[in-house]
Give the backbone structure.
Amino acid sequence: MKLDSLIPAPLRKPAKPGEGNGSKNAAPADLKTSPPERPSDTERLTDKAKDAPADVLAWVDQRTAASGFLTGMLYRKVPKGTNWFYTLGSAALFAFIVQAVTGVFLAMFYTPSPTEAYASISHINNDVFLGQFVHGMHKWGSSLMVILIFLHMGRTFFFGAYKYPRELNWVIGVVLLILTMTMAFTGYLLPFDQRSFWASVVGININGTGPVVGPYLSDFLRAGPELGATTLSRFYAIHMLLLPGAIIALIGAHLYLVVKLGTTAPPWVRAEKPKIAAPVSQLDAGAEGNGAPPPR
Amino acid sequence: MDKRNEPEAAAGERPKPLPRGYFEGESMTRRHAFTIAAQGIGGLAGAAIVLPAVGFAIAPIFERGKERWEAVGPLDDFVEDTYRQVVFTETQGIGDAGKTTAYVRKGSKQLGEDPREIIAVSNRCAHLGCPVRFVEAAGNFICPCHGGVYDFVGKVIGGPPVRPLDRFQTRIRNGQVELGPRYSVTSQLEPVRARDPGEFTGGIWEYLYPPRPSTFPPPSG
Ligand code: HEM
Ligand code: FES
């Protein structure tokens, strides 16, 4: 309850039926015999200032009706047994945000031209204030993101969280995994040093070994028969415009489904049977719709 | 279809009034016609954006660069029993990244080649494209990436490569050796259109890895 007072009213946890706080500001019994004290100017100003954040939120809420959605999302029920492994998805999301933010700042100094790309990366690493740090975050963060996604995928797999009705979230997840790998592939060429150049040559040629479509796929990736200037700008555009947009959209869909469907309980948590018979109207659906009796 | 438009109503039901503007024999309601029109126009507008963008992105598949020839040294520089390494520009306009290396020698009578011929072997590994190096002492081409080894004429003698090393067309102009477009060879060293590394040549593979418009026809003969 203490913490609750820090949260602006529109976002506070909705009161359960019968728990309402209507009595807080009850009017005094007789306004004539005991009139309320008149607040001083400073008191009124501080009160106003305290209310300002809530007022702003209320203003937005009156025009968007977003608080119902937000409180529903923030106070949604999670199943018994939810544990640290459930944070791996959010960790992957965090890794993506790190990549997006550091990537934007790298783009401010990077030049996607075959004659200048390498020099611009050296410049970032050697001359720009904190450049090596931001570059390092982006570079190591990319591996971290891939690792976290695989761990998160393992969590959903071993907890059986891919089963009905969450198959579509698994499918979206697979697409996210592929897009993330494509991000890593296209990003690798950008420093344009010997390692990234030859690694991309090898990677593109592996694509080319697919029968019938392979050769055309390589030509598409390279924008021609040889890896060159247009390959670099093509990879750059795919890496910093096309894929991030697609990933953001799909993460949105992924999280929408997580909130809409709720998360799964770990496989070792058994559904509880209601201990007493109760009229259907009093039955709470329980965290997982498992028929757990309502809290008393 | 809007049920109201069907003049015969189910038995026992009162026939619903016909919509305004209805005429005998009309094939769709006004609402339906407008829905189709709006979706059609939306589709056209979408296609007007998407088609050029996609075409723009895949056009390079169908483009062939200009045939380029570059002089790499006087004829006397080259011998028949070993290679001379030359560096020349394969893709123009991108600085050093557009350069490639070839190993060049004269045809050798001992190997049954025409001595007037100039042979230029590409250093692009036929496995996945790393740069191979000619090792004088062994007389072999060796790849640093996955251990591919090729003999003196470029045929595979070890490691993962799937076909011999590519070659470049050659000619002699004003006493200078000139290198031209790249071509690939089959395991019997017959010339075919240039293929990417990793792709087999000859036999059925000529169809499974179709020649791309961006490559040049192989030299005849
Ligand atoms: C960019 C990559 C991804 C992000 C940011 C992401 C984010 C999230 C988040 C925040 C959750 C909430 C529950 C939790 O954290 O465990 C979640 C759930 C889920 N994710 Fe992902 N995810 C990603 C990739 C994947 C992949 C690759 C898969 C599988 C192929 C996947 C499958 C699922 C499934 C099935 C759930 C539902 C779990 C449940 O209901 O218990 N996700 N995701
Ligand atoms: S690229 Fe030469 S052996 Fe793999």
